[in-house]
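I have been asked to look over a protein record a colleague put together. Thanks in advance; the entry in question is below.
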Amino acid sequence: MQPAPVTKYRPFPPVDLPNRQWPTRTLSRAPIWCSVDLRDGNQALAQPMSVEEKLEYFDLLVKIGFKEIEVGFPSASQIEFDFCRRLIDENRIPDGVAIQVLCQCREDLITRSLAALQGAKQVIFHLYNSTSPKQREYVFNASKADIVRIATDGVACLKRHMPPLLATGTRLQLEYSPESFTSTELEFALEICEAVTDTWVPTRENPIILNLPATVEYATPNVHADQIEWMCTHLTRRDRTIVSLHTHNDRGTGVAATELALLAGADRVEGTLFGNGERTGNLDIVTVALNLYTHGIHPGLDFSDINAIRDVYERCTKLEVPPRQPYAGELVFTAFSGSHQDAIKKSWPHQQPGKPWDVLYIPIDPADIGRSYKAIIRINSQSGKGGVAYVLEHEFGFSLPKGMHREIGRIINDVADAKGTELTPADIHAAFQQEYLGRTGPVTLQHFKTTERDSDVKCEATIEVAGQAHKLTASGNGPIDAFVRALGSTPLPKFEVLSYSEHSLGKGAEARAVSYIQIKTVRGLTLYGAGIDTNIELASIKAIVSALNRVLAR
């Protein structure tokens, strides 16, 4: 990097828009969506999709609900041409879905593209040419007038050659892109768009699509919004124009730039699933659509099985969705942080059917997009008591008393530190079993029964301590009290019971009871024990033995 002051780069110039309106607006509806996965996304792949993969991907896009799909560049290669023909010849395009093709403003490419579209019901013909000052200087060595002529000649050529296609019943809509719009002087971008519109002569019934691409992202999202609002307010036939966005992600703000540009008046969005595209990618349509959904605006696209969509995407593109990719990544609903886990666990019970979603740290209900609740809380050395308790409850049914959370949290943290990696739910369950339920000594319960007499309960028990049997008997106001009194005749540490809770584990005939008992020794040591049995009384006695064994282990 160049040391300060940085002279190698310069700031992007702001837009003179003193009365901008977009900052005070809110989004209230979804835009028109156009997927460019099969063209812009496909050309960015190290291994472009085969025709069969493109067919599978097209079917996925239709199933999601896209009504406009850019299927390729049929004049660029035979594969692209053949794919377009298969879609039409095999009647794969549902009614109401328009296929879009990209084409440069050249007569031979326009006629070839029209040949690829014969028999299609609904077509968007996407013409483009580069307009920015550096493109004019470095690539074309052309004046502004020359660049305008390229665009208008292309549109005029399309109008001359399209009547045979229209005669067969095809509905054709023109889309024009001043490529590198955001790097073009706004006055010139307006000039060329107006010239194209003059040549095409759109109607309210068949408006022109003016696509204003951020071919390379150079500016902050607010500048992009200013550019779009400026164009929307200066177009002379705004009522016959669909203003379209095509943002790239070079600065990592493609989503923000799109959302602000929608506030600025844009009607349509081009992008790809999960943002696949050249360099740092296209706009991620999944993110923008589900962002709208989390604000109560249905996007008109169905992402209710995001995992299945991700599977097709990864198989066809040979790319992987990163684990932290919004909404679809493997870890996006996962909290490792202890404080986050605790907040999730505490807020979850307050979520009620029919009420607005309001679970802390989880901005969308994972179930709405087909994601599992199981991965919400995962455990490593940074995790806390709430996360561990959540996993034990939601994965294995153990609803630990609140006072036990801190204790089990410390135990699991020690295990995670020792292992040095994330713990699976099975790891956590195994540690819980070993610490509370699986201890075999030094105290073991050999026999226990109770009898009731008046208001007292008498217990008879046999325990073994370090291999030595002890027959015990005592009375109390219940089985737990009687057993604690009976233990008082042994050399075991003296203690009192501080708390007791229990619940069923499972349902039906196979259900068992689990008990949690907290004890405090005369030396002030406080620990929990846990016990499981089909008999609730025995489960509580086993919990006392569990707690005693944990005391003795200290």
